[in-house]
Amino acid sequence: MNKLEEFPYQRILVLGLAKSGKAAAKLLHRSDKKVRVNDYKATPADPDVRELEQLGIEVVTGGHPLEVLDDIDLIVKNPGIPYHNPIVQEAESRSIPIITEIELASRLVKHDVIGITGSNGKTTTTTLIFQMLEESHCPAQIAGNIGNVATEVAQSMTPNETMVLELSSFQLLGIETFQPKVAVLLNIFEAHLDYHKTMDHYMGAKANIFKNQNEADYLVYNLEDPHVCRMVENAASTKVPFSTKQKVTHGAWCDESYVYFKKERIIAKQDIVLVGQHNLENILAAISAAKLGGATTEGIHQVLTTFSGVKHRLQFVKNIKDRSFYNDSKATNILATSKALSAFDKPTILLAGGLDRGNDFDDLAPYLTNVKAVVLFGETAPKLEKIAQSVGIETIEFVDNVKHATQKAYQLSEPNDVILLSPACASWDQYKTFEERGDMFVEAVHTLE
């Protein structure tokens, strides 16, 4: 297994356990570093804690005592821990560098990294790129925010494998030398402001994906997103735009009938299985990155004629008595739900709600044209009710959870309806993850008759 080489830090605090923290701690230990782990919620009896301690790693649980920073050269921080956390602020006051495990993983990879970020579409685009490389017989591994811990994947990679890496803004805040061969910037929309506080800070985090690139590297970016275009103006990398609205001979684009990369016709639009205008943007980004990573047109074509979506992202679940059920639980913000709604021209029953991050939902209103009813749950239900009323939706129901929302939506539905879980909110008011929320929906659909 690969180990860290020429890594200048010796005494390292892993802040936050979870999957990425555990993997980082084990990697650092194997790389002969002195490792300490600190997790607020963990207890000494937790299996992960006991496993690390059996390896000889010090683990401090139940709080964040400032003493854990003593004699520390570097912190590997769990991405979910905010920078206003007192222990993080104390570390910054002591000028201790803070990274995420993405930085560690990048130092293990011997071949190219393709990094993907944006407010929406990351998982779909990452999966498309990976499958396009696989179908083209280009060795690759997929990791990052998609669910596979990057340091775990990187330890077992061979020197000729490309890492396809989904990256959140939280992860990108903690990099030093990370330099993907191909960086993909899909879009920017107001998101995670409870963490970042300002749009400028959020955009700055996303821009880290290309900050270490040079002209030998590639930056695939959305030509139709004004935020993105402003962000990439001074990038040192070779820019490769994609556009659904105009011809770009040095990137990916489409006309009414076909999709192209530069001057090459890739596929007829009618042959693409994945639905939705927003997914066309993801497809153009994926084609660009895959081509730059060595994928063949044949491999790309094969993927686009068979790939119908990733789990929890406009995932078709089932058709029951001519009602189509779609799981879009990964839609944790307004833009994602807007794009999901735009994918359908049939009467739609929308299941929405979740964690209240303080934003309103006015931007959702123009996309509710085909919505005949809404079923609401979670903290934001009253705000969503207000928007639904403002556009004239008469059928508005409140329920306790996603299971009950699914049952209620089915009761309200008629043949030819779409029943869409697309919450427009994070899940944490009721569920540990959006996956848990989506799984409840899928399970509830399969109990219907």
TrEMBL record:
Chief location of this protein within or outside the cell: cytoplasm
Protein name per its UniProtKB record: UDP-N-acetylmuramoylalanine--D-glutamate ligase
Top-level taxon in the UniProt lineage: Bacteria
Residues covered by the Mur ligase C-terminal domain: 312-425
Range of residues in the leader sequence: none
An annotated GO BP: cell division
Catalytic activities: UDP-N-acetyl-alpha-D-muramoyl-L-alanine + D-glutamate + ATP = UDP-N-acetyl-alpha-D-muramoyl-L-alanyl-D-glutamate + ADP + phosphate + H(+)
InterPro entries linked to this entry: Mur-like_cat_sf, Mur_ligase_C, Mur_ligase_C_dom_sf, Mur_ligase_cen, MurD
Sequence similarity: Belongs to the MurCDEF family.
GO cellular component: cytoplasm
Sites where the protein binds ATP: G118, S119, N120, G121, K122, T123, T124
Organism: Radiobacillus deserti
Annotated pathway: Cell wall biogenesis; peptidoglycan biosynthesis
One Pfam family cited in the UniProt record for this chain: Mur_ligase_C
Function, as annotated: Cell wall formation. Catalyzes the addition of glutamate to the nucleotide precursor UDP-N-acetylmuramoyl-L-alanine (UMA).
